[in-house]
Amino acid sequence: MTRAALLALLLLSSAQAAALIHLRPSLNAAGIITHGPRTLKTGQPKQVALTFDADMTPGMESELRSGKVRSFDNETVVQALEAANVPATFFLTGMWAQVYPASALALAKHPSFEIEDHSYDHPGFSQPCYGLASIADAQKSADIGRSQRAIQTATGTTPQYFRFPGGCASESDVQKVEAAGLTVVHWDVIGGDANQKSPAVIVSDVLSRVKSGSIVVLHVSGGHAPETGVALPAIIKGLRAEGYQLVTLKTLLGRP
Ligand SMILES: [Zn+2]
């Protein structure tokens, strides 16, 4: 920064400086986007992006095969979004796209939905990571490439954003994702739908945590998050009542 630019910045009021900073998506220390702009341009409605992760691991696939879990594809999520005409973003694991190719294709073809990448089989890139399987450093770039290819094969779409399973990542993991041409996007609002049997708790978790520019993480993989679709109508109604416009991630981040 030049001396003149530094002086100009110092002359800004703190409110002006904050507005300049917050008109951009927020990056955390590791360079990961966690939410969109907090500050609005004049006349712009507050925006929130609902995002849904489609998890799949080798362990989950065996639960399907053994019949322990009926499905890790939650159609009620898509039905609730469609019924309320809500745009949304789906982070698919490559393995989920292979297990549910028809659902993955339907999401990709939907005019209001975006498809992004959530790793191939949902390992914890940095450890510990909520019991997720570890992955060797040497395998990480291969996992990212394998996931991109699996999603491309199933949907014809190439994701631009990547979300680490469990949000677990080191700076070198972020660099590996960026080297693959992807931008890392996490969240600032945990919807709390994993292993949650009460839709009311999911609704209150989202509505109490959301702010202008928030990225909400929920799940479309059913099974371990069975009540997401049940909670969605009240989440959508509550957000709209608070004046939020529901948008895709690319719209929230100003990259439609
Ligand atoms: Zn996940």
Automatic annotation (TrEMBL):
Pfam families: Polysacc_deac_1. GO terms for molecular function: hydrolase activity, acting on carbon-nitrogen (but not peptide) bonds. InterPro entries: Glyco_hydro/deAcase_b/a-brl, NODB_dom, Polysacc_deacetylase_ArnD. One of its GO terms (biological process) is carbohydrate metabolic process. It comes from the Bacteria. PROSITE patterns: NODB (PS51677). Keywords: Signal. This is Polysaccharide deacetylase.
